[in-house]
Fold:
Amino acid sequence: MIDFMVELFPTHLHVFVHDDPLIDEEINGIPDDPDILSHLSVGAKEEILYGSHTGMNDLQLFQKYNLPRLRAFCEKSLASIDPIVTIAQSWMNRGPKDSFQIAHTHAGFSVSGVYYHQDCVPDMGGIVFINPNPHSKMCLWGTEEGRHFPATPRTLVLFPSWLEHKTEKNLIDTPRVSIAFNAK
Ligand SMILES: [Fe+2]
Structure:
């Protein structure tokens, strides 16, 4: 029998869902512009093709394109968990079939977010957040090595930028469209 349990070093994800079709329209209207595409995307700039997020400092989707409803949704969600931070980088991922992202963090930021577009389906691959507790590798105390979150339409996931994560492979021909950002 357990008298009480302590949540030691918990890591929280915050998930936000909307039902606003105008946000879908805003995203559908974003052109194939190398200036706002991540290294996983077809048509990305050559200088950001290698490495992780380090070459992505110039990506400013929210500054370059007028996306008022998407931006308001992201900023309101962000403010609900941390009223101090502001979005400093933002970009679009258009991951073709077989693309995936290796494990990485968004070093140098406080909160990161990924938003899954309306047409995302589970076969496009979700995101896996890797347990920061090194003992999880030894399967001790019921810990797990990572937690999967599916690519869920119209859904924003906010997570601490230090939390290591990776994506699963997109198994289908339709590009997996998501919007991501870093805040500090
Ligand atoms: Fe990431």
User: Anything to note?
Assistant: The helical segments are 21-28, 61-64, 68-81.
